[in-house]
Amino acid sequence: MNAFNDLMAFQKDTEALAQVAGRLGWDQETVMPAGAAPQRGEEMAAMEKVLHARRIDPKIADWLAAIDVQALDAVGQAQVREIRRSYERTSKIPADLAAEIARVTSMSQGIWAKARAAEDVAAFLPALEEVVRLKREEGQALAQGGDVYDAILDDYEPEMTAQRLAEIFDAMRPRLVDLRAKVLDAKAPRALTGLYPEKAQLDVSNRLAKAFGYGFDNGRIDKAVHPFSSGSGLDVRITTRVSTDDPFNCFYSTIHEVGHACYEQAIDNAYLLTPLGRGVSMGVHESQSRIYENQLGRSRAFTGWLFDLMRDSFDEFDVSSEEEFYATVNRVNKGYIRTEADEIQYNLHVMLRFDLERALMSGDLAVADLEAAWNDRFAADFGYAVDKPSNGVLQDVHWSVGLFGYFPTYALGNVYAGCLHEALRKDVPNLDMQLRDGNTSAATGWLREKLQQHGALRAPQETIALASGMEPGPEPMLSYLEKKFSEIYDI
Fold first, then answer.
1. Is 256 assigned to a binding site?
2. Which residues bind Zn(2+) (predicted)?
3. Which residues are catalytic?
4. Cα 488 to Cα 188: distance, rounded to the nearest angstrom
5. Model pTM?
6. Structural contact between residues 40 and 24, judged by C-beta atoms closer than 8 angstroms
7. What is the model's pLDDT at position 340?
């Protein structure tokens, strides 16, 4: 056991340093002065050099060779599995390349933000060209002759392949397109109108976070251009954003990020600062954020409680009934923004990005042609043209920071959430009675027990299968969507 104990002690320091690096990223997106970007890029590169060196330290190989894995319990075996995977993977990436990616993506993020604000795609393309070049080089190093996109996808969804994702998406697309066509041909519920002051929105946002079990002793909510969750263990922070004419943007961004954060906060503290002390994959992570946001937060029962809260919080709120409010919350709109999309169209936004970034990584699509390719695909998929870059190719932060392979996990998270929701409803048949009172504890407690507390103990697909009692697939999600929106739109 000495080799195992020494390995875990070494790994604890590595995990702690990774949390510090993550805090630098949180600071950059929330409170860092804009002029600090060049220095922050150097700081991030320096941290990445330290982390990369630790992750490929030759002592790790010696410890792994000395450990009798069969003598360990299931948790110990999982810890060794994750450390071995990280060591073997990181060892394929040159240290200079890892540091350069950290430096360039830190700088690129600021360039993207300015280009987005100025609606200036040309100002961003040189930085994106460099990011794509570096990420392709990283993928080639990891793939070692195999599929480059599969290699980088493994960072976010281990054991998943682009081919399997394409099969899942191909099964989803026809039914989603058909449902969307029927809904858009039907009479739409009323849209929310009026202005909703920022302070009141943030007050409601805090109420929502508490209602879903977010622990403020170990977390905080700040504002950011693109909402996100950061950290794990005892320090898990989230951000939201405010639009005075669209409070749902704030509220459901908050609930979404709370889903991520509650997953991290619920992981067994015995796994703190170990490889098991974080979400097992981004697909599983998105299953938590999406089930919190949609199946729970947009349910008829919970929106009944939110309806009363909004009437108490906003003077100009003029929706007349709970049922009308439920329909308004779930209104299917023509729009451009993935994060604001309804449940039907959200996955179509993700599929667009999945296909484009695969083409970028393979070299079939040049960065210079990306905007035109985006606009053409959007018009084909959604039936109308992109009106400005911030509603098109500049809307997401992900590519600027090198997160290629991340996008498909959003749709995969919806698939996983569909499976979990079906099982949850069977196990908690009176769930709606509690949600109507703003009480999510039965649902969040079920998710905590079945999935969240285990962290990265099991592989992603196994995690979902054991929690839901079924092999993951898109049918539960598609059936849920068809039933819900057929009722709302009377189709």
1. yes
2. 256, 260, 286
3. 257
4. 9
5. 0.92
6. yes
7. 84
